[in-house]
Write a structure and sequence with these properties.
The chain has ten helices and ten strands. By secondary structure, it is of the alpha/beta class. The strands form two sheets. Strands 6-7-8-3-9-10 form a six-stranded mixed sheet, with helices on both faces. A four-stranded antiparallel sheet has the order 2-1-4-5, with helices on one face. Strand 7, helix 7 and strand 8 form a beta-alpha-beta unit. The radius of gyration is 17 Å and the shape is globular.
Length: 238
Amino acid sequence: MALLELRDVHTYYGRVHALKGITISVEEGEIVTLLGANGAGKTTTLNTISGLLRPREGQIIFDGQVINHIPAHQIVHLGICQAPEGRKIFSTLTVEENLNMGAYSLGNDRKTIEENRKRVFRLFPRLEERRHQIAGTLSGGEQQMLSIGRALMARPKLLMLDEPSLGLAPMLVRAIFETIKEINEEGVTILLVEQNARAALRLADRGYVLETGNIVLSGTADELMRDERVRKAYLGEA
């Protein structure tokens, strides 16, 4: 049984039909990527899984449990955490205070919180160097590290990343993707939304291609990398 399944999920913004019956699965231990142009429904998919949006039809099943109607904060308790597009850090708080906000689901379990903080600092040493710095003064790359680190503070089973390379220099993109691979190797399943299709497919085990709220292609990363439609539309090849 897959760790995460979406079965014929339909999500709306008012009357706008954003997800039109998508079906995807993510096996435990995998990195699965969602590819697609702006407006294809990638972020909507993540927000529907995390409970920020409610599907009107279909089922979302996580670890054997239907989670359609579970509040977003309880979904975090189940083991799903999201690092959102645009980072959305708490810019007036310090780095350490941002990380502590990510651990709210752990309550007063100070030992586990400290263990998780040490793990984040091991993955992102730059954050430890800046632990007392106001988050809004960090560089874009450091803010992205903080966004991912904050999501990891709850020790998720499934980490959802929305455009982690957005606005970053190529060297920082490589560093972020290397860390994502390391996080996965430590046992965290990852669902990755990323417009840098080449980098995403190099990292992922499998992928899905979304167009206007529909899944139009799926396969292993190698299969999608070789697919002529993907090469033309997302890899910039004639």
